[in-house]
Design brief:
Blueprint: H1 3-16, H2 20-27, E1 28-31, E2 34-37, E3 40-43, E4 50-55, H3 59-70, E5 76-82, E6 93-97, H4 104-117, E7 125-130, H5 134-137, H6 147-160, H7 164-172, H8 181-186, E8 190-196, H9 219-228, H10 237-247, E9 265-271, H11 273-286, E10 290-298, H12 302-320, E11 326-332, H13 346-357, E12 364-370, E13 382-386, H14 389-395, H15 409-416, E14 419-420, E15 431-437
Helix pairs in contact: 1-11, 2-3, 7-9, 9-10, 12-13
C-alpha cells in the first residue's frame, strides 16, 4: 500500500469514529423505563411528552438513532440539516437548508421549531441535537431584519478572516434563538442537548452559536468584531441598527450563566476532534507508523499554519534517520481570508500551499481534509499532496502560483489530481491533517 492510500485510510478511520449513530448510541440508553443520558436518569413515566429538535450537518443521522432508541415515545420533532444531508425519519421532520449561508428553507424550519417549542411544558422533555453548521441552518429573523440582510451578513463574515468564535458572537446577536435563546423558548421543560463539536476547545457557546448554552458575549463585542474586520460600513444597515439598539440596551442581551432558564438544561458533548484524532492515530499505528498526535487546536491563518506544519515535518524527517516511519496528526480549523474569485476551501488551500513547500522533497505525504466531507462550497473533503504534486503539475503546464492568489485550489486539484472525495459524511468535528514521513 502506498503512502497516499495509507493517509486516506487514516483519515477515514478518524471520521468513522465520530459518525452520529455511534455517538448517540453511546449516549442514550433505556432500561426499566428510565432514560439514561450520561450522568442523568429520567424516569419516563414522569415525562408527559418528548420532543426532538436540532440543527447541524449531522442532526438527521443523530435523530435517526434517537428514533431507534425512543421509538413511539417521541411526540414530535424537527431537525434542520444541510442540503443533501437528510434521511427518512418516522417521527421527526427533516428540513434540508442552506449552508454555509442560510436560505428560505432554514428560516421557515427554524420558525416551525420555535413554534413547536413554545408549546413545551414543565413535564415535557426536549432533546436537542446540535452539530457543526447549526449557525447557518438555525436561521431566524429578528424584527426589522430581512432574509437578504442576514444572508449578506453571513457571506461577509465567511470571507472576512474572522475566526468561528468571532463570527458566532456576531451571529448570536442578530438572532432570537442563538446564544442560549432557544433554551429560553423551551423553558420550563427539561432540555438535554447532545452535541457534536466542530470548534477548537469544544466551547458550548461557540458550537452552532450555542442555542442552548449561556452566552458570555455582548452586543458591544459584536460591533467591535465588525469594526476589527472593517465590516461596519459593508453590512446591511438593518443589521447594524439592530446591534446598535442592543448595545444601547433597547434589545435584551443573550442569557448569561446565572439566568434561571438554564436550571433544567444540560449540555453534553458526545463527539469531538480529539476522538477522531485518537481513532486516526490507532489506524496509523496499525499500519506501522509511529504516531504522534500533535494538537487538536490548530488555528490561525491557513497559509502560516501550512508552513508551520511542513517545517515541522521536514525537521522531523531530518532527524528520524533510520527509525520507524512517522505519522503526525493535527486537528483544528484554520482561517482563510478569501480575496480572490476562485473556488476552494481552507483544506484544499492548505494542501496547495504545502505542496509548494514540499517541492523537491521525498517521502513526505500530507492530507488536509474536513471531516464533514465538504471543504468550502465544493464536493471535495480536501486534498492529498507530496513532493511530486507541483512537478507533476508543472509538467502539464499548470502553475500553482496562478491558483494560490485567486484562492482557486479546487480547480488546481481538479486538473492535476489529488482531491480527496468522500461524499457527505453527515458528521463534522472540524479538520484533520495527517502527515506521513517515511
Amino acid at each position: 500500500m502506498n503512502a497516499k492510500d495509507c493517509v486516506d485510510q487514516i483519515f477515514r478511520a478518524g471520521v468513522e469514529s465520530v459518525l452520529p449513530d455511534k455517538m448517540i448510541h453511546k449516549s442514550l440508553k433505556i432500561e426499566n423505563n428510565i432514560l439514561s443520558i450520561y450522568d442523568i436518569s429520567i424516569p419516563l413515566d414522569k415525562i408527559k411528552r418528548i420532543f426532538v429538535i436540532g440543527a447541524g450537518k449531522a442532526s438527521a443521522l443523530m435523530a435517526k438513532e434517537v428514533e431507534l432508541i425512543l421509538g413511539n415515545r417521541i411526540t414530535d420533532g424537527h431537525v434542520i440539516v444541510k442540503h443533501g444531508h437528510g434521511c427518512e425519519l418516522a417521527k421527526i421532520q427533516v428540513t434540508e437548508a442552506g449552508h454555509p449561508t442560510p436560505d428560505n428553507f432554514g428560516f421557515q424550519a427554524t420558525a416551525a421549531i420555535v413554534q413547536l417549542m413554545k408549546n413545551a411544558q414543565k413535564d415535557d422533555l426536549v432533546i436537542c441535537l446540535i452539530s457543526g453548521g447549526g449557525s447557518s441552518l438555525l436561521a431566524d429573523l429578528p424584527e426589522g431584519i430581512g432574509q437578504n440582510d442576514l444572508i449578506e451578513l453571513n457571506q461577509l463574515l465567511l470571507k472576512s478572516g474572522a475566526d468561528i468564535k468571532e463570527m458566532n458572537t456576531v451571529r448570536k446577536h442578530v438572532s432570537n434563538v442563538k446564544g442560549g435563546q432557544l433554551a429560553r423558548i423551551v423553558y420550563p421543560a427539561t432540555l438535554v442537548s447532545l452535541i457534536l463539536s466542530d470548534v477548537v476547545g469544544d466551547s458550548l457557546e461557540v458550537i452552532a452559536s450555542g442555542p442552548t448554552s449561556p452566552d458570555s458575549g455582548t452586543f458591544e463585542e459584536a460591533i467591535r468584531i465588525l469594526k476589527k474586520y472593517d465590516l461596519t460600513e459593508k453590512i446591511p444597515q438593518p443589521v447594524l441598527l439592530h446591534l446598535t439598539k442592543g448595545m444601547e440596551g433597547k434589545i435584551p442581551e443573550t442569557p448569561k450563566a446565572d439566568d434561571p432558564i438554564f436550571e433544567n438544561t444540560r449540555n453534553f458533548i458526545i463527539g469531538s476532534n480529539k476522538i477522531a484524532l485518537e481513532a486516526a492515530g490507532n489506524k496509523a499505528t496499525e499500519l506501522g507508523y509511529k504516531t504522534i498526535i500533535m494538537t487538536s487546536e490548530l488555528v490561525g491563518d491557513t497559509t502560516k499554519a501550512a508552513k508551520y506544519v511542513v517545517d515541522l515535518a521536514l525537521n522531523i524527517q531530518r532527524n528520524i534517520m533510520h527509525q520507524r516511519s512517522v505519522c503526525l496528526l493535527f486537528g483544528g480549523e484554520t482561517t482563510l481570508q478569501v480575496t480572490g474569485l476562485g473556488l476552494g476551501g481552507r483544506n484544499q488551500h492548505f494542501a496547495l500551499v504545502a505542496a509548494c513547500l514540499l517541492l523537491g522533497t521525498k517521502e513526505i505525504t500530507l492530507l488536509s481534509a474536513g471531516t464533514d466531507g465538504n471543504d468550502g462550497p465544493t464536493d471535495a473533503a480536501g486534498a492529498i499532496v507530496d513532493g511530486n504534486t507541483c512537478p507533476d503539475a508543472l509538467a502539464k503546464n499548470i502553475l500553482p502560483q496562478n491558483y494560490l492568489p485567486d484562492f482557486d485550489s479546487y480547480h488546481f486539484f481538479e486538473k492535476t489530481g489529488g482531491h480527496l472525495i468522500t461524499g457527505s459524511t453527515r458528521t463534522n468535528v472540524m479538520d484533520l491533517i495527517a502527515i506521513l514521513i517515511e
